[in-house]
Amino acid sequence: MFLVYVITLSIFPGVLAEDMKSEKLGSWYPIILITTFNISDLVGKNIPFCGLAPQPSTLLALSVLRVVFVPAFLLAGKYASGVAVLMAALTVSLGFSNG
Hints:
Elements lengths: L1 H10 L2 H6 L8 H19 L9 H10 L3 H11 L4 H15 L1
Helix pairs in contact: 3-6, 5-6
């Protein structure tokens, strides 16, 4: 659980609010990304109540795989800053896996 929060806090909200730019969405881009994170986090936290919780070993493996999010966000912010869909997909994945 500690790893989940370390990865999340290394990306959210700092990287999403400061390092992500979009010419098309302007100053709304970080707000949209943060809202997207919060909604997907809410969905991820409510999945166990629907009876769809994975096995503990699967949860452990997915928690360790979250380490990939740090370089993914940094590379996407640097090289794919104009691709809002990629950033939204990464943000949804981060938020959902945080729940």
